[in-house]
Design goal:
alpha+beta; Phosphorylase Kinase, domain 1; Transferase(Phosphotransferase), domain 1; 3 domains; six-stranded antiparallel beta sheet; two-stranded antiparallel sheet; 16 helices; 10 strands; 46% helix
């Protein structure tokens, strides 16, 4: 088989993929942005590289295609095509994901807020549950293999998680041929389960340990163990892990989350959560209970925060991207309030997404004012339900702030469409 030479921009690969850019290099080859000539769809095209003459590397490449294609879940990368070009080079065409990896997000932003961390972990656990149900153990779960996609209203926290890179996946049935030699440890040292440090194959619970490491890193900003390979593996086997709240000095991390992370990081597999599905449900319940714990005073606090006058904003500059994702509790609104709130909420979401992409500089004042008005509607609706007042005045104030932000966002409409935010643009009626 020929060694892989880098493909050129504009080159037609395998008779149907037009190369548009080099995205990066993975452990098994180069990854390109390409477009399917017939379907017009953008794909991430992974082509087996210099390891093409290694039978095990080829087998692992095939296994990645087989593993990922068997898992049907919104939080698992989709596989569109797998094959070999005319010169014998194996390729894998996957869903193109335009977003940062979880590793990039942690490096750029530091530890995540608890609600956001829970939303991300819940989706990863759901993805693992789907993989395990399909008979696949990932075995290389780490932040570099998780991508975050902003602007997904249907996802917890408005951020869709995608798990990828099943190159080291293991099938749970015992009839598959082993691809790793005895005495060799495959995976990433910082995220590998203790049993796999001992050259044991591991099972679905090994993935839960790796997810526990990711949870710790999301909350603390670093993995619990790092350094030289042997020292890191020894730490996984014998060193205790501190609670995330203690390691990060963050009092806002609830004790329930501390306990759940430490259960995932148990040295003995049988002491971890019984399954990824059970873990996902615990994370979901914890996220829900924390959201319900927000009292009316919290709404008032947030309204005050979003109501700072222009002079304060100028003295203490704030960017749209520094704001939390817009997620007021709108489920209880009915009738006119619910109808009037849909478009402005989408406008605020659009401003936040564009801010995350660096495309909404200078919109902080309008976004803050609209957020304040949104919380004002919630506050007024609560009062109206008690028979204290009607929410018409709050809705009228909302309309004025909505118009101001809409005017500022209109020139950015094409940028938003180009960034894949068409659904939000449509809901915002922009």
């Amino acid at each position: 088989m020929e060694a892989h030479q880098a493909l050129l921009v504009g080159e037609l690969f395998a008779g149907r993929f037009r190369i548009e850019a080099l995205l990066g290099e993975g452990g098994m080859g180069l990854v390109y942005l390409a477009r399917h000539q017939v379907l017009g769809r953008k794909v991430a095209l992974k082509v087996l590289g210099e390891q093409a003459d290694d039978p095990n590397a080829e087998a692992r490449f095939r296994r990645e295609a087989q593993a990922a294609s068997q898992i049907q879940h919104p939080s698992v990368v989709s596989i569109f095509d797998f094959g070999m070009d005319e010169s014998g080079r194996l390729y894998l065409a996957m869903e193109y994901l335009h977003g940062p990896t979880l590793a990039d997000a942690i490096a750029q932003e530091g530890p995540f807020a608890v609600p956001r961390a829970l939303a991300v972990l819940e989706q990863i656990a759901d993805a693992l549950a789907a993989a395990h149900a399909a008979g696949v153990v990932h075995r290389d779960l780490k932040p570099r293999n998780v991508v975050l996609l902003a602007g997904a209203l249907e996802a917890p926290g408005g951020e869709l998680v995608k798990v990828l890179d099943f190159g080291l996946a293991k099938f749970l049935d015992s009839n598959r041929t082993a691809l790793t030699a005895q005495g060799m440890v495959f995976g990433t040292a910082e995220y590998i389960a203790p049993e796999r440090c001992l050259d044991q194959p591991g099972d679905a619970r090994s993935d839960l340990y790796s997810l526990g490491i990711i949870a710790f890193e999301l909350l603390v900003g670093r993995a619990p163990f790092s350094g030289r390979l042997v020292e890191t593996l020894r730490a996984h086997l014998a060193s205790p892990v501190p609670a995330p709240s203690e390691a990060a000095g963050r009092e806002e991390i609830p004790a329930e989350l501390d306990a759940l992370v430490l259960r995932c990081l148990a040295k003995r597999p049988e002491e971890r959560p019984e399954s990824a599905g059970a873990l996902a449900e615990e994370l979901r319940e914890l996220r829900s209970s924390l959201a319900e714990a927000a009292s009316e005073s919290t709404i008032v606090e947030r309204k005050a925060r979003f109501s700072r006058p222009s002079a304060e904003l100028e003295a203490d500059p704030v960017t749209v991207s520094s704001l939390p994702p817009p997620a007021p509790d709108t489920d209880r609104l009915r009738g006119q309030a619910a109808q009037e709130l849909a478009a402005p909420l989408a406008l605020l979401e659009l401003a936040w997404c564009l801010g995350r992409l660096g495309l909404a500089q200078g919109l902080a004042h309008e976004a803050l004012s609209l957020a304040s008005a949104l919380y004002g509607v919630l506050e007024a609706e609560t009062a109206r339900e008690r028979g204290e007042e009607d929410s018409v005045d709050a809705l009228a104030a909302l309309a004025g702030h909505e118009a101001a932000l809409r005017e500022r966002l209109l020139p950015l409409r094409e940028h938003a469409l180009g960034a894949g935010l068409a659904t939000i643009v449509e809901r915002a009626r922009l």
